[in-house]
């Protein structure tokens, strides 16, 4: 069996990629390998079961799961893997992602999903959470994460300017 990268990014639909790509870009910036896959809880339930039940044995360490609407993907995935699952509520058309957020965040006690913000911010932060988990046992990554934050701090101007 091929050893998988530490992070799996799964999403319910191709239409989620625009949001979830922000998680992928953030992992790229931190030099963390990942695999991105479309795994729909309702359109491809067998694929979800296969993925979630084998994720740990395949070598993944953290799962980032993005979905919109009745967003049961992160919770269903978490129910079938002991790996940490970070859920990203994708902004839906009908309810602007409020539906996605509540679907993902309101897990009953016993099966946790670490839920991030709606949309791009959540996708970026899910990647940073994944990085923080992996950095617990990877000093070089911990240094890269520190540097990422330092660059972010240095990029904030002290005084506002009129936009061009
Ligand atoms: C969810 O339904 C997906 O996660 C997506 O956010 C939403 C809409 O999917 P599409 O109809 O665009 O495929 O399952």
From TrEMBL:
EC nos: 5.4.99.18
Reaction(s) catalysed (UniProt annotation): 5-carboxyamino-1-(5-phospho-D-ribosyl)imidazole + H(+) = 5-amino-1-(5-phospho-D-ribosyl)imidazole-4-carboxylate
Keywords linked to the UniProt accession: Isomerase, Purine biosynthesis
SMART domains, per the entry: AIRC
UniProt-annotated binding residues for substrate: 13, 16, 43
MF term (GO), any: 5-(carboxyamino)imidazole ribonucleotide mutase activity
Keyword check for 4Fe-4S: no
Ranges for domain PurE: 5-156
One record GO biological process: 'de novo' IMP biosynthetic process
Pathway in which this enzyme or protein is active: Purine metabolism; IMP biosynthesis via de novo pathway; 5-amino-1-(5-phospho-D-ribosyl)imidazole-4-carboxylate from 5-amino-1-(5-phospho-D-ribosyl)imidazole (N5-CAIR route): step 2/2
Enzyme class of the recorded protein, top EC level: isomerase
Keyword set includes Isomerase: yes
Function: Catalyzes the conversion of N5-carboxyaminoimidazole ribonucleotide (N5-CAIR) to 4-carboxy-5-aminoimidazole ribonucleotide (CAIR).
Family under the similarity heading: Belongs to the AIR carboxylase family. Class I subfamily.
Protein name stated in the entry: N5-carboxyaminoimidazole ribonucleotide mutase
Organism of this sequence: Gellertiella hungarica
Phylogenetic classification of the source organism: Bacteria, Pseudomonadati, Pseudomonadota, Alphaproteobacteria, Hyphomicrobiales
């Amino acid at each position: 069996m091929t050893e998988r990268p530490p992070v799996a990014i799964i999403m319910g639909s191709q239409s989620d990629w625009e949001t979830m790509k922000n998680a992928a870009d953030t992992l790229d910036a931190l030099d963390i390998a990942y695999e991105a896959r479309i795994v729909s809880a309702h359109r491809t339930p067998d694929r979800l079961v296969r993925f979630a039940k084998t994720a740990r044995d395949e070598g993944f360490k953290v799962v980032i799961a993005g979905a919109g609407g009745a967003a049961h993907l992160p919770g269903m995935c978490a129910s079938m893997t002991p790996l940490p699952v970070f859920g990203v509520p994708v902004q839906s058309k009908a309810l602007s992602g409020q539906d996605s957020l509540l679907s993902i965040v309101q897990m009953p006690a016993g099966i946790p999903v670490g839920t991030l913000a709606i949309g791009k911010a959540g996708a970026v932060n899910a990647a940073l959470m994944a990085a923080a988990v992996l950095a617990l046992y990877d000093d070089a990554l911990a240094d890269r994460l520190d540097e990422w934050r330092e660059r972010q701090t240095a990029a904030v101007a002290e005084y506002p300017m009129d936009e061009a």
